[in-house]
Specification:
heterotrimer; A mainly alpha; B mainly alpha; C alpha+beta; A: mainly alpha; Cytochrome Bc1 Complex, Chain D, domain 2; two-stranded antiparallel ribbon; 14 helices; B: mainly alpha; Cytochrome Bc1 Complex, Chain C; two-stranded antiparallel sheet; 2 strands
């Protein structure tokens, strides 16, 4: 039993050190930000009821900049021209109703920069004449939104025009195309042209945002889920003055985005969780056998 | 002239014995390598360390196959190629990262075991010294390895640590090495860059592992003649006790052979350790893979907090407790002093600290102080933490200065 | 005879040691920064074409360098941190906020730099107008050669500024 006492001392000092350098140190270094579960308490719920049919008639004002591909509405400008004009490419609205919060959108349409807590140079102008108009447009967007969207679609709609995700082969102007190189010269002109466009887009974006928004390829390993949740909910709560706007996703929308980020940043998670129990189970049996061998060898050695 | 039996069949025991003396080696190194019976699980830490080093070596070999040591590709080769494309690449990486951290936990346990039981005295000095050299080379190996993923912490740790040499060359060498500058010479550039990653890659995968393997051989070799210490520091007549064992007096003999008796205990301890280790690998690896290092290195942006891995924190805190140059001296002092511990302990007693009066207090103070320094080393240097850090650093230095006096005054135990 | 044997042994050892020293020198040189790196350590900037109150950003040793000709209308015009080149006054500094190394943005209409990260502000001579930055923007070692400036070398003007603790 003396051995167990010694073990207890070793474990005690190990745990104290661990507590000091991990949970305690991190609680001192990073201020805790309380989340609001994507409820956006500072925005009042709209009392008017939106009419999707009216919204459909009003959508032309959106289509001046945005595409709605699912409804066959094309954007008036291609990505590169839009970026040269606005600094950023306006998002396609096909899936907007599926991931953004309703009351957030209604407030956003009336006063985008303020609602998004963005800088005054925010590209989108106020786009609804009245609360009723805003509610109608939102009702329309909700009516056309698909029931189920993929994690990548959520990411592309909410984050993808500013944040690349190179491990997911996503750039701010779309997926990296599959191209073929010229067999005689080994050059790949199509890919090179695509890369030039990405570079041009990023330069414009950096001018617009003040800096190039980071590639989110492994952000799930660099930041905790709680951080990402509260940061997406309100970027200003962590980084006062940051140019990143509040995008107004719902809780479910965030979960979808997080799923995508996890698939690029921690793709081995599923495998890890599958292999873990097998390895540990093996080692437990190994330990039992080792214990029996040890007992047999040490039998009769001591009084 | 050696005698070779022309009729011996190749690769039979006899044939091999004539050429390689395999039975002699087995006898000397295992079946008649005598270990005291009076030991506890802490005596298995050497084997645990060897196993952890083995894990590092094996996982490192697989990582090496896909790692690309360039500033452009290093981060992605680790975080994309190895983590998501290479089959089981994630497993090697997690094993490597967790083992790199846990190996230091075991080293510290092993060290404090040695200090507690006085296993560095009376013929065991070389064991201690070779062990401390291993600690230093492991530290260098860990630092070089930490640079390789080329994340923010890799870059800025490389920047901050190499910057230390700036003051060193200017103030201690009279600027003698200051063109192109000692720091620039170490880095091969004005800032950590391609040259830096290349040379640390070389150090991490070739030079330091070679040194470590050589030192491990020395460390094991240093153990063979004086034999392992025991729980009471008792001086054992190994020849006489071995005869008892060979005569079948298993209970009376104070020793056991390394193989299979001691080994059976080693393997059991190892099996428990592996459960703990692989639990960390699969379910609790974050502590060994700092989140900050998952942001790619950016020379134009400093992370808000820069700190080394946990096992360097106590020395980092000593460094921080003083102004730049005195800090460097204090840092060097607390590292180097460990090497000469066998000569600072002036007491003839080889006994557990619990039986050594004031040394017992000294031991626990040292342990507690180093834990405190470790914790403070990670906290931002503000307010109360700065003051506590200074007190703890002064205490550490004072403890080492006091050691010869404390042990000189110690009463000899027994009639010796 | 034994003496002679010892001497020959030692002579051989000493000579081998000489060879080892030579090899060590070669090893040291291998660790030296490459010529391309050293060449990058000195950047020459031509100041003659500069326009008043217009910020140019150069790169030196991997860091952004702010270069700006400061006009008389600028409140920082009389600051000692500005460098006189002929009849003009120039602001030269490493363009990294001394707080956490972000790159501040210049707003000509306000005559100041504002850091995007934590809102630190500097005037057109690099002095701190608003915390958190702990000290002014750093002036890199420079040497004036007519209207050209070499960064990375300590010239007369730089040493004078150093003596006044301005850099």
């Amino acid at each position: 039993m003396k051995e167990l006492k010694i073990l207890a001392v070793v474990v005690f000092f190990t745990l104290v050190t661990y507590w000091g350098v991990e949970p305690y140190a991190h609680s001192v270094m990073h201020k805790h930000v309380e989340g609001h579960d994507f409820k956006y308490p500072d925005i009042n719920a709209s009392k008017v009821k939106g009419n999707a049919q009216n919204g459909k008639n009003l959508i032309a004002s959106c289509a001046g900049c945005h595409s709605i591909k699912s409804q066959g509405i094309k954007a008036p400008m291609d990505v590169m021209n839009a970026s040269a004009t606005y600094g950023v490419n306006p998002p396609d609205l096909s899936n907007a109703g599926a991931i953004f919060d309703e009351k957030f959108l209604i407030a956003f349409l009336q006063n985008p920069a303020h609602t998004a807590k963005a800088k005054p140079n925010f590209a989108m102008p106020p786009s609804a004449g009245s609360e009723q108009d805003a509610a109608d447009i939102v009702a329309y967007l909700k009516s056309i939104a698909p029931k189920e969207i993929t994690p990548k679609e959520a990411y592309v709609t909410a984050c993808g025009r500013c944040h690349a995700n190179s491990y997911g082969k996503w750039t701010q102007i779309g997926d990296v195309p599959k191209t073929k190189f010229n067999i005689k010269t080994k050059n790949d002109v199509k890919l090179a042209e695509f890369k030039i466009n990405v570079a041009k887009y990023q330069d414009k974006l950096a001018d617009y945002m003040g800096k190039l928004p980071p590639d989110l390829k492994v952000i799930v390993r660099a930041r905790s889920k709680h951080f990402l949740e509260t940061f997406v909910e309100d970027p200003q709560s962590h980084l006062p003055g940051t140019a990143m706007p509040r995008v107004g996703v719902t809780k479910e929308g965030f979960e979808k985005i997080y799923e995508y980020l996890e698939s690029t940043g921690d793709p081995s998670k599923a495998k890890r969780e599958k292999v873990g129990p097998i390895v540990l189970g093996f080692l437990v049996i190994f330990a039992i056998l080792a214990f029996l061998w040890y007992k047999s060898q040490w039998k009769g050695l001591k009084d | 002239m050696a005698h070779f039996d022309p009729n011996a069949k190749p690769f039979t025991k006899k044939w091999l014995n004539e050429r390689l003396a395999i039975e002699t080696i087995e006898r000397v190194m295992s079946t008649e390598y005598w270990i005291p019976k009076n030991i506890n699980f802490l005596w298995a830490m050497g084997m645990v360390l060897a196993a952890t080093f083995g894990l590092l070596l094996i996982s490192g070999i697989f990582l090496l196959m896909y790692y690309i040591p360039t500033t452009k590709e290093a981060f992605n080769s680790v975080n994309y190629l190895i983590m998501s494309q290479v089959g089981y690449g994630w497993l090697w990486r997690h094993i490597h990262a967790v083992a790199a951290s846990v190996v230091f936990l075991i080293i510290y346990i092993h060290m404090f075991t040695g200090i507690y039981y006085g296993s560095y005295k009376k013929g065991r000095e070389m064991i201690w010294i070779s062990g401390m050299l291993l600690f230093l080379t492991f530290s260098g190996e860990a630092f070089a390895g930490y640079v390789l993923p080329w994340g923010q912490m890799s870059y800025w740790a490389g920047m901050v640590i190499t910057n230390l040499f700036e003051g060193f060359s200017k103030d201690f060498l009279g600027g003698a090495l200051n063109f192109p500058g000692l720091v620039e010479w170490i880095r091969g550039d004005y800032v950590p860059g391609q040259a830096f990653i290349g040379r640390f890659f070389m150090l991490h995968v070739v030079l330091m592992p070679l040194a470590i393997i050589g030192l491990i051989v020395l460390h094991f070799g240093a153990l063979r003649i004086p034999h392992v210490n025991n729980q009471d520091g008792e001086e054992i007549d190994f020849e006489a006790e071995a005869e008892k064992w060979k005569a079948g007096k298993r209970k009376e003999s104070k020793v056991i052979p390394f193989k299979p008796v001691f080994l059976s205990k080693d393997v059991f301890v190892l099996s428990i350790y592996f459960i703990f280790f692989f639990y960390l690998v699969f379910y609790h690896f974050e502590f060994a893979m700092d989140p900050v290092n998952f942001d790619p290195a950016d020379p134009l942006k400093t992370p808000p907090h820069i700190y080394p891995e946990w096992y360097f924190l106590w020395s980092y805190e000593v460094l921080r407790a003083f102004p730049k140059n005195p800090g460097l001296v204090a840092f060097g002092f607390v590292q180097a002093i460990l090497l000469v511990l066998p000569f600072l302990d002036r007491s003839p007693n080889v006994a557990p600290a619990s039986k050594r009066g004031p040394f017992k207090i000294w031991f626990w103070l040292l342990l507690v102080d180093m834990v405190i320094l470790t914790i403070l080393g990670k906290l931002p240097p503000e307010g109360i933490f700065t003051i506590l850090g200074k007190i703890a650093a002064y205490t550490l230095i004072a403890l080492w200065i006091a050691l010869p006096f404390i042990t000189k005054a110690e009463k000899p135990i027994g009639g010796r | 005879m034994s003496d002679r044997r010892d001497f020959m042994g030692m002579a051989l050892g000493a000579f081998a040691g000489l060879g080892a020293l030579g090899a060590l020198y070669a090893a040291k040189r291998t660790w030296d920064p490459l010529p391309s790196v050293k060449a990058g350590g000195f950047t020459t900037i031509d100041l003659s074409g500069a326009k008043e109150n217009e910020l140019n950003t150069e790169v030196w040793r991997g860091k952004p360098i702010f270069v700006m000709k400061v006009g008389k209308n600028n409140p920082a015009y009389n600051d000692k941190r500005l460098i006189k080149v002929g009849n003009d006054r120039f602001f030269i500094a490493i363009g990294l906020c001394t707080h956490l190394g972000c790159i501040p943005t210049y707003f000509p209409e306000k005559n100041k730099f504002i850091c995007p990260c934590h809102g630190g502000q500097f005037d057109a001579a690099g002095k701190v107008l608003k915390a958190p930055p702990p000290k002014p923007l750093t002036i890199p070692p420079f040497k004036l050669e007519g209207t050209k400036m070499v960064l990375g070398e300590e010239g007369k003007e730089y040493k004078e500024m150093k003596a006044q603790k301005l850099v």
